[in-house]
Inverse folding.
């Protein structure tokens, strides 16, 4: 709805401001006084009321009416209806004369002045609606009221007029009245998109004639200036309106002033196009306008100045249009010559005729723009569709490229408006849309037959008429006109009255108030998808000659290309002239591009010189006939090809075809690039929204897109659908889509900046051919992808973005190219809505791109001068792992020797380095492979490689090679696998290529997200090989975004992949933080369940799947093994177990970095946990991770406390507290938590809750009293040593004593030889690194020791009643580890050899302090082991709980529990403590861009080094070998496996990595888990196995920790140049095969020698000189192979040998020492252990007792302590199968058979219970499938049962088939069996 009139005003002649006989108007009254918000009052209305000037006239003129049009600043049109009448007044001149005021100007007033003159007065209505007649009637009515003195108050009439509201469109009919007995009917058009013309168009044609109007029509469309002249103002308005109506659907967008006042005539000299009407009165002023087309309406002429050329419609359209128009306007013309003319051939009525003419023009536009929708490029869909029109393709398909008229129209503003208005695919449609889409066929068929066309035109006319006059005309108009006499009786007239403002304003306000309360009128806007119509067929060439015999020509082109690629050059040469002739035709050119395309493989086609020559000739020939706008898309199709065809010009330099096809206009045409760019963007946007991004649109090239080859779903349809859905999307979705699209456009812009620089920079940049030519490459060509990175600053420290150009002569070329590209980028980015930051980034990038390309070209130019290239050693290809792919092909480099002397031959052996070869960059490794420069060792192959993920430092170096006088640029690359590569690039490698190499290396080293690492991309990534210049041409969006979008996004610093860094909140703002997290992260799907029920009852069904996986995780198996709680609901689970598995963190809401299941005291509810966790950093509250099976003491881990927690926790209770605050209550809960842990210890409960224990004796330990006394000083000493003591500290140590510092004066105390003795009260140190302690007897021992960080515990006072004690120690922080590691790497792998004494190896090693750090960690671990062993519990609570804490806790378990020293146990330990408990592997390993700045911190490596130190001291206690540790150390940084990626279980679940290892086995060659890989390898080869493995029961290891006891790990020092690192096992096997083949070939002649020379640092010692056992196993295998037997697995062989050895030993009375050392592993010999323990009576596990008479019969039984932890670690060595639980049970046989003892094995993995004749038996006697078991229940003894066994030892197993009766040694053992079986069942 809209107001009929916005303003009503009365304008009168201004008597006060007359100047030189020129009057002025002034506004007398105006309503409303205030401006409307939506349409401000137009200024200067006074001028338009009297366009010819305000004048007084001597006699009254008749009243006049016209409508002027004003355009406001927003280009909205306001229609001013002016009704002017004349009022008499006394002549002002005469008055002046009487008063004697006549001035000089009036002196010559000799003319007799009339006494009365008439002044004009205008009533004006201003409206945004164009209802001319209504306005005429309304103003007439007001005048009538005034003249005829009607009784109606004028205020009412005006008030009604201003408050009248009518609909804008929709075809309604509204009757209005102004309250003066009048009535009018207003009809609104149905569709306001169609102009309303009344009969103006017909009038225009009548006044000017057909040809003239067509002339004006073409002039208006081609943007000329048009001026109408007429003496009638209303006719001027009508003529202008008529001209605009026939331009529909185009809208005129320049100056439009139908009535221009005389005072503003200077507007006519404006430079822009216009349509203006001027009164003929001013004709003379218009004469000197030189470039204006003047149409005189009164005279019917159109004058075109000489200098103006109007492009007319193309033939035959012009002719056809004229014919049609004459048929409408002058139907008699056609039949004028007929002998019998029809009786009536009258033209239609004027109104109808008007619509018929418009119908003709609609038909004309439908033909002009037919198929335009197929040439629209949609480049953005959200938030607003952005659409561009591909002009060249449109003209090309219409064969109208030469046509002036169409070219100008398509370039014009009107058409731009048309595209932006009609482009969007989802909007309301109108008549024209329907016509151009659905009537194309009809128009095409009828165009030659005017009568049929005429019928069509009449149909259109009918629709147009219906639109304007939706209702039949009703004679309801009743408007009063002034009576005749009143008009003439001039004298009686009173002046026009002033209106009462208040009354009118009241009217207006009243109406406004009404409108506000009225319900809003909602016009349903029907949006739909705009139909596109049939695509344009390829129309015939302009002159209609389809090329004859074109098929034959295409055949020739095809054959020639085939010959070239088959290298049949002679044949190709013969065909060449014919081909070049054929290429004049368009079809042949298209054919050429298609053919060439088939020869491009993965974006490359490397040709030899002759092939290259021919192809370039054909390309040039094709391009030279293309016009600069490339209307047929030939250049567009060649664009990807010129970057694909290339020839090698010498190492590392490739010349691409683009450098030879630059001399064509098309490359310098901005329009061509824009069209190409938009078409590419459209494809990408389309791919973005198509679910099937696979291959369909990949094959469609740009040219086909332009032709719109009826694909399944066009981009416009897609866009339409998206626009329809847009309002339904959430805000996030909307912004996400907008961002995706924006980055798509941005990455394309980068792509095109590269392409343009390729095609615009001449090969020889010194020849300054400014933009006359040049070259181009595909976006994926390396150069661009790395520049984006450089801008992104991903390597800010090493790359300096310099946009300055070095050499002056090339810079002008460069500058002009940069300017050209900048212009292009500005234009396309502004049009497609790229953000400003992105645009700035692009501008920074472009000079770099250009400069870089200039450098490349210089190299190519240099090289092209000196063909042919020089011979160099052949580059050897490296072998790759399955799934590993080359990113950059080999670049010729020299490997320079570094500080390691072995390879240079200084320590004996040949000089292997320097070597010449190539460096290869793969998705996984960086590999150098080549041959030594020394001719004597030239046959050897030197390989040095490291995983790209382990790169820690890269710096540029310049190297002068001994054999070269040149100084080469090179790189020094250091890896944390202790490898260093110094390479110098050969001179054939272009410098930009070296740069490309660096950028790619960086991109692989720091992917934006962990999913970019090799472990994730292996085997999935598309080919990414950067052969030196190109990459994939039509890459899928995936790869494109991989290379570009990510760097683009980084450019503006929005790292869209890295999630928020997780920092713990303080507890006050914890709640708000929680909700924030919930939104931020994906997996947090539900709030924590507040109850501590058992698992299955609290879980929702959706979580059960995940939980079943969690249960299978390592930790759970371990908790069950340790008896810390099961997840079963079985009857056996008692409430009195001290601990339970809590699922409080199952959704990772309590602590992100903890696992989902945690062990907490049974008495603590989950709600408490949620509160307690806030006191600890990162919410890592204390949880149990291990329990000592003997003393039942537990080991807990947590992070350090937040400062708040500490205060409430340790401050003495008498500090004044103001009321119980929240902090207090939390610290109380914390105390409760610790108390619960203490209460769980049997020793505590047995001492009946006493607070103190006298000395160390307790009821529980009375038997081992003496041994404890022995050991007690030991702990004190250790304690002291760990905490350190200051000089003045007393030797005796009591609770309140000061804590000293473990670091002396900045150096680590461990270096001080006498610190140990000093601490120990000046006595000599004990051998194992713990000082002896004279009197460190404490009054009491704490139940719980808290190992805390000294820095945090300041100010705490111990409470004498608490049962815990805090042991403050100083821990090394992460920075220390990082720096120490850097120094260690430099010590072990120096970059250059030096003779300085300070730089020697040992000195550097000492300065690195690495050994001191190991000492510190081991020392703390040994202390904790002692404390645990003495019966206390220990809580390790250091830093954030994920670095040192993890190291200490893992080492403590490894030292205390033999199970963790087996393969399974160690894996479980790492999975539990390191992976599940959230050690930040990705962060510490700097695996992604986000963590790049934090640097590499090898916390895990430090742990492995500690394990290695323990392994050296206890070689018989570990099932795995040293190689196993090295393997883990290498692969934990290699990113080959997913095991050590990501920072917590939570992140792994979020990425779906945690549980896939079981399910996914799609590509068997790609192992995702390092453990699977080790298992697989372990089956094949004994390399991980420690042959000396012979564990003692229950052995707690206590290693020496002094520096003197620690050795440097050989992992840091060794190297094998023959094969590279040996940790990628697949590569080893391959090399061995090759080596054998070469040996066989070489030595076929003379006698073979048995000797082999083993070179240091070249050969792999373990391979060349294997140890005896491995050698024997290998020999056995090869013999078996020769005999054709299937060889046995090495483990089976080994187990057989051991079994045989056992029986042998059994036969001898004492252990046989004569048998080989190999068998020593069976003797449990006396170990150095720090105390002798007596067997405790009656507590031994039944299984141990059972074993005594079998396996250990011969061994001197060492006193063992009872334990459950060895239940299945002890027998692990027998067999490689998985055993969850095993031991001897008596089983009742079938009917009447006796009970027999059998060895039972419960196998959880295979889910079965197997039994064997005896422990050693290989053949299983029977199997009970657990799947069939229904229940397991306590049984009763039956007949024939074993004697002397208590009743509770019997139990029954009920299966679906039968009931088994079992009997164990005692009730405890039976209970264990039942529990184990039950837990297996419940886990299933």
């Amino acid at each position: 709805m809209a107001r009929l009139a916005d303003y009503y005003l009365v304008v009168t002649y201004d008597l006060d401001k007359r100047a030189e006989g020129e009057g002025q108007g002034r506004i007398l009254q105006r309503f409303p006084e205030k401006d409307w918000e939506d349409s401000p009052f137009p200024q200067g209305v006074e001028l338009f009321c009297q366009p010819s000037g305000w004048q007084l006239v001597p006699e009254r003129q008749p009243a006049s009416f016209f409508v002027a049009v004003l355009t406001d600043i927003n280009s909205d049109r306001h229609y001013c209806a002016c009704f002017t009448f004349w009022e008499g007044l006394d002549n002002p001149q005469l008055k002046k004369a009487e008063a004697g005021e006549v001035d000089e100007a009036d002196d010559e007033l000799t003319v007799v002045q009339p006494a009365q003159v008439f002044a004009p007065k205008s009533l004006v209505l201003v409206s945004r609606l164009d209802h001319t007649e209504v306005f005429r009637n309304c103003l007439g009515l007001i005048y009538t009221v005034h003249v005829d003195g009607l009784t109606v108050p004028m205020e009412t009439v005006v008030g009604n007029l201003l408050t009248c509201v009518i609909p804008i469109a929709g075809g309604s009919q509204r009757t209005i009245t102004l309250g003066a007995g009048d009535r009018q009917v207003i009809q609104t058009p149905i569709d306001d998109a169609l102009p309303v013309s009344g009969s103006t168009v017909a009038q225009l044609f009548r006044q000017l004639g057909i040809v003239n109007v067509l002339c004006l029509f073409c002039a208006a469309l081609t943007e000329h200036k048009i001026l109408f002249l007429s003496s009638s103002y209303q006719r001027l308005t009508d003529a202008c309106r008529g001209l605009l109506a026939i331009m529909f659907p185009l809208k005129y967008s320049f100056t439009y002033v139908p009535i221009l006042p005389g005072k503003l005539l200077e507007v006519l000299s404006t430079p822009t196009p216009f349509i203006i009407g001027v009164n003929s009165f001013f004709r003379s002023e218009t004469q000197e306008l030189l470039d204006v087309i003047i149409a005189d309406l009164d005279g019917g002429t159109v004058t075109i100045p000489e200098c103006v050329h109007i492009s007319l419609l193309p033939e035959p359209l012009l002719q056809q249009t004229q014919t049609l128009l004459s048929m409408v306007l002058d139907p008699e013309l056609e039949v004028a010559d007929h002998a019998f003319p029809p009786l009536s051939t009258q033209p239609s009525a004027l109104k109808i005729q008007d619509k018929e003419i418009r119908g003709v023009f609609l038909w004309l536009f439908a033909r002009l723009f037919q198929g335009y929708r197929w040439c629209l490029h949609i480049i953005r869909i959200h938030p607003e569709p952005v659409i561009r029109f591909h002009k060249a393709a449109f003209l090309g398909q219409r064969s109208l490229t030469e046509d002036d008229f169409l070219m100008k129209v398509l370039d014009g503003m009107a058409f731009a408006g048309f595209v932006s208005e009609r482009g969007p695919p989802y909007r309301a449609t109108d008549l024209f849309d329907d016509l151009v889409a659905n009537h194309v066929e009809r128009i095409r068929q009828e165009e030659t037959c005017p009568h049929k066309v005429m019928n069509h035109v009449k149909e259109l006319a009918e629709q147009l008429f219906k639109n304007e006059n939706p209702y039949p005309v009703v004679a309801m108009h009743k408007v009063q006109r002034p009576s005749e006499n009143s008009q003439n009786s001039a004298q009686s007239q009173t002046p026009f009255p002033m209106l009462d403002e208040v009354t009118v304003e009241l009217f207006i306000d009243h109406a406004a108030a009404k409108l506000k309360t009225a319900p809003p009128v909602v016009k349903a806007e029907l949006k739909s998808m705009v139909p596109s119509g049939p695509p344009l067929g390829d129309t015939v060439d302009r002159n209609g000659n389809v090329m004859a015999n074109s098929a034959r020509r295409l055949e020739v082109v095809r054959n020639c290309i085939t010959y070239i690629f088959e290298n049949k050059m002679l044949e190709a040469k013969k065909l060449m002239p014919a081909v070049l002739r054929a290429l004049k035709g368009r079809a042949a050119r298209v054919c050429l591009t298609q053919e060439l395309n088939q020869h491009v493989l993965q974006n490359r086609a490397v040709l030899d010189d002759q092939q290259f020559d021919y192809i370039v000739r054909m390309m040039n020939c094709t391009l030279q006939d293309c016009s600069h706008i490339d209307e047929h898309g030939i250049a567009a199709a060649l664009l990807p090809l010129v970057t694909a065809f290339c020839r090698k010009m010498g190492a590392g330099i490739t010349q691409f075809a683009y450098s030879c096809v630059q001399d064509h206009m098309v490359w310098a045409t901005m329009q061509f690039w824009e069209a190409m760019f938009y078409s590419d963007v459209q494809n990408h946007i389309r791919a973005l929204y198509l679910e099937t991004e696979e291959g369909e649109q990949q094959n469609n090239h740009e040219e086909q897109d332009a032709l719109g080859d009826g694909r399944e779903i066009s981009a416009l349809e897609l866009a339409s659908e998206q626009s329809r859905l847009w309002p339904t999307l959430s805000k996030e979705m909307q912004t996400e889509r907008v961002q995706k699209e924006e980055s798509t456009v941005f990455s394309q812009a980068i792509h095109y900046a590269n392409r343009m620089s390729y095609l615009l920079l001449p090969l020889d940049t010194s020849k300054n051919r400014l933009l006359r030519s040049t070259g181009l490459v595909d976006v994926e060509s390396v150069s661009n992808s790395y520049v984006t990175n450089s801008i992104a600053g991903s390597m800010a420290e090493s790359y300096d973005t310099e946009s300055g150009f070095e050499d002056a002569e090339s810079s002008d070329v460069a500058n002009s190219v940069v300017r050209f590209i900048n212009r292009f980028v500005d234009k396309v980015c502004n049009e497609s809505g790229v953000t400003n930051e992105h645009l700035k980034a692009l501008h920074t990038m472009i000079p770099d791109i250009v400069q870089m390309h200039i450098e490349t070209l210089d190299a190519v130019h240099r090289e092209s001068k000196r063909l042919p290239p020089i011979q160099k050693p052949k580059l050897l290809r490296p072998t790759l792992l399955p799934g590993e792919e080359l990113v950059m092909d080999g670049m010729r480099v020299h490997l320079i020797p570094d500080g390691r002397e072995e390879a240079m031959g200084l320590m004996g052996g040949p000089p292997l380095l320097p070597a010449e070869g190539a460096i290869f960059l793969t998705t996984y490794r960086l590999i150098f492979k080549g041959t030594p420069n020394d001719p004597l060792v030239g046959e050897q192959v030197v390989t040095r490689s490291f995983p790209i993920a382990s790169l820690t430092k890269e710096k540029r170096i310049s190297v002068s090679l001994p054999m070269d006088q040149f100084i080469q640029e090179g790189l020094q690359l250091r890896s944390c696998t202790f490898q260093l590569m110094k390479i110098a690039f050969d001179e054939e490698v272009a410098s930009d290529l070296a740069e490309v190499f660096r950028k790619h290396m960086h991109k692989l080293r720091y992917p934006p997200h962990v999913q970019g690492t090799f472990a994730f991309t292996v085997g999935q990534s598309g080919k990414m090989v950067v052969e030196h210049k190109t990459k994939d041409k039509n890459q899928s969006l995936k790869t494109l975004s991989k290379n570009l979008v990510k760097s683009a996004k980084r450019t503006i610093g929005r790292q869209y992949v890295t999630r928020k860094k997780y920092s713990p909140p303080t507890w006050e703002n914890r709640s708000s933080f929680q909700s924030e997290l919930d939104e931020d992260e994906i997996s947090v799907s539900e709030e924590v369940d507040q109850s501590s029920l058992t698992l299955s009852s609290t879980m929702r069904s959706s979580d059960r799947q995940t939980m079943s996986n969690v249960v299978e995780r390592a930790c759970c198996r371990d908790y069950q093994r340790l008896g810390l709680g099961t997840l079963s609901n079985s009857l056996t689970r008692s409430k009195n177990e001290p601990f339970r598995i809590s699922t409080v963190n199952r959704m990772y809401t309590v602590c992100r970095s903890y696992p989902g299941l945690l062990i907490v005291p049974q008495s603590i509810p989950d709600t408490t946990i949620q509160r307690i966790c806030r006191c600890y950093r990162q919410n890592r509250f204390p949880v149990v991770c291990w329990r000592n099976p003997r003393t039942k003491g537990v080991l807990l881990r947590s992070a350090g406390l937040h400062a708040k927690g500490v205060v409430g926790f340790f401050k003495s209770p008498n500090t004044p507290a103001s009321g119980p605050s929240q902090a207090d209550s939390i610290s109380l809960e914390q105390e409760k938590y610790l108390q619960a842990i203490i209460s769980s210890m049997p020793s505590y409960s047995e001492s009946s809750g006493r607070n103190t224990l006298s000395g160390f004796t307790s009821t529980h330990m009375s038997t081992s009293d003496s041994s404890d006394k022995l050991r007690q000083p030991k702990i004190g000493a250790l304690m002291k040593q760990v905490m350190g003591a200051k000089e003045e500290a007393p030797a005796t140590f009591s609770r309140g004593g000061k804590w000293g510092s473990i670091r002396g004066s900045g150096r680590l105390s461990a270096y001080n030889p006498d610190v140990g003795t000093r601490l120990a009260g000046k006595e000599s140190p004990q051998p194992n690194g713990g000082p002896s302690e004279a009197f460190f007897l404490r009054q009491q021992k704490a139940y719980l020791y808290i190992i805390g960080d000294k820095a945090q515990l300041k100010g705490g006072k111990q409470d004498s009643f608490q049962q815990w004690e805090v042991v403050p120690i100083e821990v090394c922080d992460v920075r220390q580890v990082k720096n120490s590691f850097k120094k260690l790497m430099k010590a072990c792998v120096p970059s250059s050899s030096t003779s300085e004494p300070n730089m020697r190896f040992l000195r550097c090693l000492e300065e690195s302090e690495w050994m001191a750090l190991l000492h510190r960690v081991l020392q703390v671990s040994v202390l904790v082991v002692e404390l645990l062993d003495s019966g206390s519990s220990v809580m390790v609570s250091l830093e954030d709980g994920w670095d040192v804490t993890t190291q200490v806790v893992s080492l403590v378990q490894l030292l205390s529990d033999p199970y963790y020293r087996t393969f399974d146990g160690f894996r479980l330990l790492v999975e539990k403590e390191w992976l599940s408990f959230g050690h930040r592997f990705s962060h510490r390993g700097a695996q992604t861009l986000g963590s790049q700045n934090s640097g590499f911190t090898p916390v895990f490596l430090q742990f492995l080094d500690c394990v290695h130190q323990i392994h050296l001291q206890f070689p018989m206690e570990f099932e795995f070998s040293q190689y196993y540790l090295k393997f883990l150390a290498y692969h934990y940084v290699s990113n080959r496996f997913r095991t050590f990626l990501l920072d917590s279980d939570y992140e792994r679940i979020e990425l779906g990595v945690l549980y896939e290892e079981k399910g996914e086995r799609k590509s068997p060659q790609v192992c995702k888990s390092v453990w699977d890989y080790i298992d697989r390898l372990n089956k094949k080869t004994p390399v991980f196995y420690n042959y000396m493995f012979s564990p003692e029961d229950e052995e707690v290891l206590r290693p020496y920790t002094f520096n003197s006891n620690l050795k440097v790990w050989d992992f840091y020092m060794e190297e094998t140049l023959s094969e590279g690192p040996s940790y990628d096992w697949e590569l080893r096997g391959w090399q061995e095969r090759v080596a054998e083949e070469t040996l066989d070939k070489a030595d076929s002649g003379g006698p073979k020698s048995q000797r082999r020379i083993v070179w240091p640092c070249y050969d792999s010692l373990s391979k060349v000189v294997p140890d005896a056992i491995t050698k024997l196993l290998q020999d056995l295998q090869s013999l078996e192979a020769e005999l054709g037997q299937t060889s046995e697995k090495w483990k089976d062989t080994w187990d057989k040998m051991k079994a045989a050895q056992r029986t042998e030993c059994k036969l001898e009375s004492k252990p046989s020492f004569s048998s080989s050392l190999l068998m020593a592993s069976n003797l449990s010999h006396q170990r150095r252990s720090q105390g002798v323990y007596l067997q405790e009576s009656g507590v031994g596990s039944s299984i141990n007792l059972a074993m005594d008479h079998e396996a250990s019969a011969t061994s001197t039984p060492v006193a063992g302590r009872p334990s459950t932890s060895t239940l299945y670690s002890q027998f692990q060595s027998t067999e490689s199968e998985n055993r969850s639980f095993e031991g001897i049970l008596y089983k009742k046989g079938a009917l009447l058979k006796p009970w027999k003892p059998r060895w039972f094995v419960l196998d959880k993995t295979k889910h079965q219970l197997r039994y064997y004749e005896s422990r050693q038996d290989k053949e299983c006697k029977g199997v009970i499938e657990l799947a069939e078991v229904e229940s397991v229940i306590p049984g009763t003894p039956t007949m024939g049962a074993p004697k002397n066994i208590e009743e509770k030892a019997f139990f029954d197993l009920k299966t679906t088939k039968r009931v088994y009766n079992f009997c164990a040694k005692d009730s405890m053992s039976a209970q264990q069996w039942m529990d184990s079986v039950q837990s297996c069942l419940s886990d299933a």
Summary: The first strand starts at residue 2 and ends at 3.
